[in-house]
Design a protein that fits this description.
This protein is α/β, with parallel strands linked by helices and 446 residues long. The chain has one domain (34-361): Rossmann fold (3-Layer(aba) Sandwich). The chain contains eleven helices and nine strands. It has helices at residues 2-25, 51-56, 87-92, 145-154, 186-198, 215-226, 310-327, 333-342, 363-368, 381-390, 400-431, and strands at residues 107-112, 126-128, 171-176, 203-206, 230-234, 261-267, 287-290, 294-297, 304-307. The strands form two sheets. The chain has a seven-stranded parallel beta sheet, sandwiched between helices. Strands 8-9 form a two-stranded antiparallel sheet. Helix 1 runs parallel beside helix 10 (381-390), helix 1 runs antiparallel to helix 11 and helix 4 runs parallel beside helix 7 (310-327).
Length: 446
């Protein structure tokens, strides 16, 4: 009987060991800021890292203006494409979490120049807000920036390319908050955020910035958080404002400067900090994500475009948030923000770091990690092992996993030992009517 009980307990214990290994193995190639990918991930500049193809693609920017500041017209169509996989996908490996979540049932609002699905990568998953006074038509993206962001978040994979958005089943709400050159105001951003909340968006990606906030904008971001929507915004404009030289001191931008907003900065291929990194010195950083030399779709049929800046990094965090909510729909906005920060990959040192905040967003860990503060009861041995396993960056060897496996195994052996002791002591206890042994009769005698 003892052997049967021991075997029954040993099988779940082996399952726990396997689960720990599976958690450790779910990560894709990723790396700390400033280092190349690991465990098979290509280093910066490798053929699949999209550093090469991105250089050959036409560019997208937040503003469509010539060097003198005059409108530059709508973004021309791109005829260029690539079959290579963009570097952010080999860095973040969202495909490893797609069996659990692809963002189904989650609406992400993209506030910017609008979304035109000329490329067909978002067919059937775009909703449009009403045109706001002073802004362009959200269904006619002249600038191309809003469509580009949307592709990073939710584009479906197309034949002949390795590109796909992080959450390819998420729904998009396009909210136009800029004019046809990409310029915006604090009040337009406030109206856009309010509209997104009223339309049921759980994630709000504000892809543009202003240099001064307003009471209306501050109230809008507070209302969004209170109603369960997480607002994301770049910590800096993608390019310095006109007439701001390199020596000018960077200033905080809005809405990222508000504490209710998750402030995101960009990383280059392989997780490297961009050159001239003082661009974020004026603002708080919560998370980092790929943002330089990234590839996405544009508003016209045909090829792809490339972009560089913190606005593109927000799209990767927004896509990760959609993956999380698709798997954990009951999270509040506060819990979602905390999960994204708690599961971010970071090197040694206190967090938040002034350059990368709580670290680099990690889609796999953000979806799968078991956080103690979210558990209804004290963590078991299996739950205790999980956070350490999933906290490793995607694709890196989980050096903690063997130790954790030993701990779980020892725990299982302890349980088996107790069962064996019970099998011996139990019959003797019953024979005594569960009375303590007589003084002259030890517990171990018949």
């Amino acid at each position: 009987m003892a052997a049967v009980l021991a075997g029954a307990l040993l099988l779940p214990a082996c399952g726990l060991l396997a689960a720990g290994t599976a958690l450790a193995d779910t990560h894709g190639p990723s790396a700390a800021p400033g280092s190349p990918g690991a465990s098979g991930a290509p280093a910066a500049g490798a053929p699949t890292a999209a550093g090469a193809p991105a250089d050959a693609l036409p560019g997208v920017s937040q503003l469509r203006r010539d060097p003198s500041g005059r409108p530059a017209g709508c973004l021309p169509a791109s005829a260029k494409g690539t079959q290579l996989t963009p570097w952010p996908q080999t860095f973040l490996r969202p495909d490893r979490v797609w069996p659990l979540s692809q963002g189904d049932g989650v609406t992400v609002a993209v506030l910017g120049s609008g979304v035109s699905d000329g490329a067909g990568a978002l067919a059937g998953r775009i909703g449009y807000a009403a045109k706001l006074p002073g802004a362009g038509d959200p269904a006619a993206d002249c600038v191309g920036h809003g469509t580009f962001l949307t592709g990073l978040i939710a584009a479906a994979r197309r034949d002949g390319t390795g590109f796909a958005g992080l959450a390819p089943h998420a729904r998009i709400l396009a909210v136009g908050v800029t004019d046809d050159t990409g310029a915006t105001t604090a009040d337009l951003l406030a109206q856009g955020i309010t509209t997104a909340v009223e339309r049921g968006a759980r994630v709000i990606d504000v892809g543009v910035t202003v240099t001064a906030g307003s009471d209306a904008l501050a109230a809008a971001v507070r209302q969004a958080r209170s109603r369960g929507a997480l607002v994301l915004a770049p910590v800096a404009p993608d390019a310095p404002p006109p007439n701001q030289g390199d020596a000018a001191k960077p200033q905080p931008v809005y809405p990222a400067a508000y504490p209710e907003v998750l402030a995101v900065r960009d990383l280059g291929p392989g997780g490297a900090l961009p050159e001239g990194d003082g661009a974020v010195a004026g603002g708080r950083v919560d998370l980092a994500a790929p943002g330089d030399a990234v590839m996405s779709v544009g508003p016209n049929p045909g090829g792809y475009y490339t972009g560089t800046g913190s606005s593109y990094a927000t799209a990767f965090v927004a896509g990760t948030a959609a993956l999380v909510l698709g798997y954990r729909p009951g999270l509040t906005a506060d819990q979602l923000a905390q999960r994204l920060k708690a599961t971010a990959y970071r090197t040694a040192g206190p967090a938040p770091d002034p350059q990368v905040g709580h670290g680099t967003v990690d889609p796999v860990a953000a979806v799968t990690a078991l956080l103690p503060q979210e558990q209804p009861s004290p963590p078991t041995a299996a739950v205790t092992a999980a956070p350490a396993a999933v906290a490793m960056p995607p694709g890196r060897p989980d050096s903690a996993a063997p130790h954790q496996a030993v701990v779980v195994a020892l725990g299982a052996m302890g349980v088996i030992g107790l069962v064996a002791v019970g099998a011996v002591v139990g019959p003797r206890g019953r024979a005594r009517g569960w009375q303590p042994p007589r003084p002259e009769q030890g517990a171990g005698t018949g």
